[in-house]
Amino acid sequence: MAAGMPTAGPSRLRPPKKSKKGPLPLKPGKAKKLSEKQRKEALQREALDYVPPEDLKTFAQLPISDATKRGLKKAFFVDMTEIQTQSLPVSLKGKDVLGAARTGSGKTLSFLVPVLEILYRQKWGATDGLGALIISPTRELAIQIFEVLRSIGGYHSFSAGLVIGGKNLKDERDRLAKMNILVATPGRLLQHMDQTVGFEADNLQILVLDEADRILDMGFSRTLSALLSHLPKSRQTLLFSATQTGSVSDLARLSLNDPVHIGIQEAGGDGATPGTAIPPTLEQHYMTCALDQKLSVLWGFIKTHLQSKVLVFLSSCKQVRFVFETFCRMHPGVPLLHLHGKLKQTARLAMYTKFTTAKHAVLFATDVAARGLDFPAVDWVLQVDAPEDADTYVHRVGRTARYQSKGKALLMLVPSEEEGMLAALAGKGITVEKIKAKMSKVQSIETQLQNLAFQDPEIKYLGQRAFVSYMRSIHLHKDKAIFKLAELPAERFAESLGLPGAPKIKFLSKELAKQKKNKSRAVEEAQAQVLKEKADAEDSGSEDSGDDGEVHESSEEEAEDAKPAKAGVRTKYDRMFERKNQNVLSAHYAKLLDAGDDDPDGEDDFITLKRADHDLAGMDLPDEAADVSKRKQRMGKAKRTMLEGGLGHKIIFDEEGNPHELYEMEEAGRWMEQKGGLRGVTQAGLKFAEGEMGKMRVANVLDKEEAKEKKREKKRKRKEREKAAGGDVGGPMVVGADEEDDGYVSPEFDLPSDSGSDDEETLAPPPAKRSKTAHASSKPGRTAVEDDEELALQLLRQGR
């Protein structure tokens, strides 16, 4: 709570106090604190003795604090829903509650109001630690609960936190110990309980499990059991869900202590089916549609509902992404969004916020958006892929027709799913009306998807993943009476996604093989009977014609043709051409393979590629090394040699005949000892560097003089060739005129000549030998490097 303004100081006209020993009056702050304590105790007694009146309708009639009432009024929550009217008087008394209500009926306030009130009456403070824990199955639902908590709890002094996956774990860890109310998803909460030092829930007062059935369905049963083992048993537990399943009942027996069951059983007269959580304002329809026509029907629906807010459910993340990417490139004329579990947390939150605030949009989503999320003003809920059970159907359609608004729902079923799904819904008391799509509004988009897959390999890859994920979801469904994998047209479904062929899937091949194995052999026996009758007829015909041998031979050939062909030797090219779905041209390769069967005579083989099936039966192939080339054999031999003893290495011998490696490091200690320690090593290094630099200077001078000499030689040859071409027959003999130019271009081509004209230059005699006493005549005070430079210059001058 915000701190109050400081009070003014004592007035000058007030007489001073006579004595400090007398009793002083109570300070205003203490009197206020005492009255606050009295109000909390009175509120506690009022809540325990509260008997709800028959006309209970508003939050103001409940025994709750003024801070909660002000927060509810500020958030425009005035009247209560039916689930709130039934559950709040019970939960405010501190009892455990097992609540079941239809979607959109206000279950969130049914547990947030008790959370605030229980902690307020317990005088919970910042130093008391975690007092309330709210567990949600999905991140979006946790964010929604946290936002509602902030809107109604602004006048309380509690600290609240949100712990979900996808956020920075370190930042959560630093603030976790200061939280009084925590909204979390199961996985991240258990991670903090196991890893975060100082995070304890020993003083927990109230535990809330929202959408408990979904928490269990998502595979969090073990996680939830581990979480409950960390929590104290002396706590209040509130468990809410739109559907009550056997697993929820088992969880209630484990975690709730003598709970009060709160449920809505509406009569059929108000439009709702007894015993279900379907709102009465919801219109439910279903239609049968072939699997390869679903996307076309969906596209036609979107094009005819551009001014509506539509939520489309698909069975997997891959399908959501494929449909979203392809439909975005086809520009339907309405904003498209997508929401699934593979998105990053920031992207999920952005998509959730956009669809919440949009007036007209289409959201493609998985079942991550099926539980608890409050999307305002959703007009249609489309279930392109059938839900896994009736409970999932209830939660999906619950995203529309929330509270008192209206909504429509459409379920698309393939013919093999119709009977089983309708029976499952009827078992829950749900009746769905059948409708038919207007074929005039349905536009086939198969060609457009094929073009997109041909132009963009990423779209083709997404289509392959979507196909595999849908088939896997059907394969993994437990209810085989509804989801029948063998009856789905896999090839046509792949073509409807724009793919040239169905990707090979192991479980699909096994399913088809199993179906073929369990198939009746009546067809095979009928074919054998037909062949036998045909052979008998030909035998009888041969007896009449008197040509028995030829007919008998023909029947043997037909019998051989009827037998399955033996598997021959398959090359890598056979496997390459048999692969499908590698790229969009695989169908073209299949045509190339089948080209030779239609025209055996080869008359119409113009620009047609045919593959010859070479007979390898008569060839003698080695038994094991048939497919191993000589190059691979050499590589294998080299690898074996390296593994056994390694490759050879070069060894050199010194003057004493001792062997050494080519590059062998001398021992540092012995070498330093020979050089006279560190100082000697330093001096030797400087001396070596000085000598190398002198060599480089001499080499530089020699290279420059050599370049100049070559340049002069080239110029002399050029002038001689020019004189010879000019007809100067009586001129001097050209030396080297018949030699070709070597093409050498000197890097020092811009250096000026040292003296005179190059035309008067003659061939220089060979340089004299170097005198042995050259260094002896060196001047005192000069270094060896300077002597070397001077010697090089002398040699050059002698060479000239």
From TrEMBL:
The keyword Membrane does not apply. It is found in: Nucleus, Nucleolus. Residues 281-453 form the Helicase C-terminal domain. It catalyses: ATP + H2O = ADP + phosphate + H(+). GO terms for cellular component: nucleolus. Residues 1-39, 518-570, 700-788 are annotated as: Disordered. Residues 57-85 form the DEAD-box RNA helicase Q domain. Gene3D superfamilies: P-loop containing nucleotide triphosphate hydrolases (3.40.50.300). Residues 88-262 form the Helicase ATP-binding domain. GO terms for biological process: rRNA processing. Its EC number is 3.6.4.13. The keyword Protease does not apply. A motif (Q motif) lies at residues 57-85. GO terms for molecular function: ATP binding; hydrolase activity; RNA binding; RNA helicase activity. Belongs to the DEAD box helicase family. RNA helicase. This is ATP-dependent RNA helicase. It comes from Mycena belliarum.
